[in-house]
Amino acid sequence: MVHVRQKFGASERRACRVLGQVRSTQRRQARKRPDEESLRSDVVKLASRYGRYGYRRVTALLRAEGWPVNHKRVERIWRQEGLKVPKRQPKRGRLWLNDAPASGCGPRTGATCGRMTSRLRARTTAGRCGC
Questions:
Q1: H-state helical runs in the chain
Q2: Which terminus of the chain, N or C, has fewer Cβ atoms within 10 Å?
């Protein structure tokens, strides 16, 4: 913006209109907080220690450690560092076979399954569930 104003001698209003920026973005200078780097290192440390935690839970952990921090600030640091919560592993599906039970219980194995009740045990032979 300053470059455009100096090169073409344009006013702030005209330069902002040409660049498609809002004029209020040119007035306020961003200030860097003195504790930004230590907070950034703590966010990265907690994110690497607790891999499945997102920025909201990391914010709660930082507050528990004594940081007076806003969740929006932690989210901004989270995005700048490129942190992401890994996807969950899908649950493994069962192998549904028609000829053999998945639990391994039955008359061939001699093992009993955990679903048996005393009434069912009395009806089956040798205490097997009959799967």
A1: 2-8, 12-19, 36-49, 55-65, 71-80, 118-123
A2: N
- Give tens-digit pLDDT for 88-116: 888 887 766 665 555 555 555 555 555 55
What type of residue sits at position 113? C
Q: Who contacts 129 (Cβ-Cβ below 8 Å, separation ≥6)?
A: 105, 106, 112, 113, 115, 116, 120, 121
Q: Taking a C-beta distance cutoff of 8 angstroms, is the pair 61, 46 a contact?
A: yes
DSSP string, 20-33: T--GGGGTPPP---
Taking the C-alpha atoms of residue 128 and residue 104, their distance in angstroms, rounded to an integer, is 11
Per-residue pLDDT tens over the stretch 11-47: 888 888 888 988 888 877 878 899 999 999 999 999 9
Q: Three-state DSSP class for 101?
A: coil
Contact 29, 1 (CB under 8 A): no
Tokens of 114: 């955990």
Instruction: Write the Ramachandran bin of 10: left for phi over 0, alpha for psi from -120 to 50, otherwise beta.
Output: beta
What is the arithmetic mean of pLDDT over 42-71? 95
